[in-house]
Design goal:
The chain is α/β, with parallel strands linked by helices and 487 residues long. It has helices at 17-32, 52-66, 74-83, 96-104, 122-131, 151-162, 180-190, 221-224, 228-246, 255-268, 276-280, 299-303, 405-408, 417-427, 436-456, 471-478, and strands at 8-12, 41-46, 84-88, 111-115, 139-143, 170-172, 204-212, 281-287, 289-291, 294-296, 312-318, 328-334, 341-348, 367-373, 377-385, 396-404, 461-464. It has two domains: 8-144, NAD(P)-binding Rossmann-like Domain (Rossmann fold, 3-Layer(aba) Sandwich); 177-413 and 435-478, Dihydrodipicolinate Reductase, domain 2 (2-Layer Sandwich). Helix 9 (228-246) crosses helix 10 and helix 10 (255-268) runs parallel beside helix 15 (436-456). The structure holds 6-O-phosphono-beta-D-glucopyranose.
């Protein structure tokens, strides 16, 4: 991969929450390790009346709050802050852009823009940038979600951006793709020979993908009420995980090869009819309960009014192609769940015949667990014989073959997803960014589910905070004789 680094970075939303918690600490991490191009300048922009000095103070405070103590090197922080400057901008105001262009100056050495804004502001933003010459050949743009709320609005945004930037200069962010363990799925599948022969409908019974969070609304009512769990977590992050599990082996580790294969998976997702939806989806909303022994409010109480937005969703999905015919993919995500956990569990088919059955030995099918967070490990559950003389029958037990990535790579720092993604944006590597056709296929599938909920008048079922969601989610898999991997 040829690196083509830019000389300037423009960060919209630079004083917001994402910037303070993730972007500035990530950029500092890259700076501290000497990975940012020499001389790269970072111009922050947002509404308000900050200036260079006050923005540097905001950044200093954010680093102080969000960096771990061992990363707080005073000299490196000081030299990082020297890269920063600030230009106020109101994206809804056309006259904002000239001052921005003046502040940024010469962009012949390349400019990367990070745009995280409400969907309604994408259009004025890209048009304004183009007008003042901040969209030419040397400029690439990173787009943070939400990129629309359905297929129609996503197409509108994509068209708007495409009128100014060609696809090879658009970097759509899904931060899950920047996570180390997520990329490890590729290493596991395509760097080892023994899984591939059984990685299909003959070898695999079902796949479960869980992204469970313990946090609740987190002061994001404005956004979350227009999204809900399906669009906040499944349409993007969960489907990206599904694609990495389900895709065919790409020929090369390149942006086109990998994204072509993922896009094929998204296009193969079975689109549900309104009659399919009630049997294949469950929605929930948390009510008061206890998370980590602390009493927390219900969603409606946090909002201050009654809402029908789902904070939990479980879905039985299908990938309709040769490899996956008949294999259910159970997807599940929720806020205020029992534990924070992102995990993929692949359950293999049982052995065709058990020679132990006549001697009392019970077999469980093998399961491969890929734990993404909070811990990082890969665990294969295999059958073993319990020690003993077996005079009362053979006793078999499931035991874990565990590869702890935390332990195996103990000395190596885990970078937050945005470190890698910002560096890829700066250097122009699109492999871990989402292509337009992927996003649109994701929306086709999602919109059909939402249409089914609307047609059936589906309302979320309540579940107490601190649990694994409504009991209907358990029934969704139990009907097929499958149990969620919950321990
Ligand atoms: C974001 C969602 O995309 O991902 C949030 O908008 C969610 O609602 C977050 O909390 C989860 O990310 P992570 O990296 O903490 O699993």
């Amino acid at each position: 991969m040829q690196r083509n680094p830019v000389g300037k970075l423009l960060l919209f939303g630079a004083t917001g929450d994402l910037s303070k918690r993730m972007l500035l600490p990530s950029l500092f991490g890259l700076h501290a390790d000497g990975l940012l191009p020499e001389g790269l300048t970072i111009t922050g922009s947002a509404r308000g009346d900050e200036d260079d000095d006050s923005f540097r103070e905001i950044a200093r405070a954010a680093l102080d709050e969000y960096l771990s103590d061992d990363r707080k090197d005073k000299e490196k922080i000081a030299s990082f802050l020297q890269r920063l400057s600030f230009q106020p901008a109101d994206l809804s105001d056309e006259s904002t852009f000239q001052a921005l262009a003046d502040k940024i100056g010469d962009i012949s050495g390349g400019l990367a823009i990070f745009l995280s804004t409400a969907p309604s502001l994408f259009e004025p933003a890209v048009k304004g940038l183009e007008k003042v010459g901040l969209a030419g050949d040397t400029v690439r743009i990173g787009l943070e979600k939400p990129l629309g709320y359905d297929l129609a609005s996503s197409r509108e945004i994509n068209d708007t951006v495409a009128a100014v930037f060609p696809e090879d200069r658009i970097f759509r962010i899904d931060h899950y793709l920047g996570k180390e363990t997520v990329q490890n799925i590729l290493a596991l599948r395509f760097g080892n020979s023994f899984f591939e022969p059984v990685w299909n409908a003959q070898g695999i019974d079902n796949v479960q993908i869980t992204i469970a969070e313990t946090v609740g609304l987190e002061d994001r009512a404005g956004y979350y009420e227009g999204a809900g769990a399906l669009r906040d977590m499944i349409t993007n992050h969960t489907l990206q995980l599904l694609a990495l599990i389900a895709m065919e082996p790409p020929a090369r580790y390149s942006k086109d090869d990998i994204r072509d294969e993922k896009a094929k998976v998204f296009r193969s997702l079975r689109v549900m009819t309104p009659t399919d939806v009630p049997q294949n989806t469950v929605t929930g909303q948390y009510e008061e309960g206890a998370v980590s022994s602390k009493v927390v409010k219900g969603y409606d109480d946090e909002l201050g009014y009654d809402s029908d937005v789902e904070t939990f969703v479980a879905i039985k999905a299908h990938v309709d192609n040769w490899r996956w015919q008949g294999v259910p993919f159970y997807l599940r995500t929720g806020k205020r769940m029992a534990k924070r956990r992102s995990e993929i569990a692949i359950q293999f088919k049982p052995v065709p015949h058990s020679m132990f059955s006549g001697r009392g030995g019970l077999l469980q099918p093998n399961t491969l667990v890929i734990r993404l967070q909070p811990e990082e490990y890969i665990e294969l559950l295999v059958m073993a014989k319990e020690p003993g003389l077996d005079r009362d029958g053979v006793r078999l037990r499931e035991v874990p073959l565990k590869l702890s990535l935390d332990t195996e790579f103990a000395g190596q720092r885990r970078r937050i997803a945005y470190e890698r993604l910002l560096l890829d944006l700066i250097e122009g590597d699109q492999t871990l960014f989402v292509r337009r056709d992927e996003v649109e296929a994701q929306w086709v599938w999602t919109d059909a589910i939402r249409a089914g909920w609307a047609a059936n008048g589906t309302k979320p079922k309540h579940y107490p905070a601190g649990t694994w969601g409504p009991s209907a989610a358990i029934a969704l898999t139990e009907r097929d004789g499958v149990t969620w991997q919950d321990d």
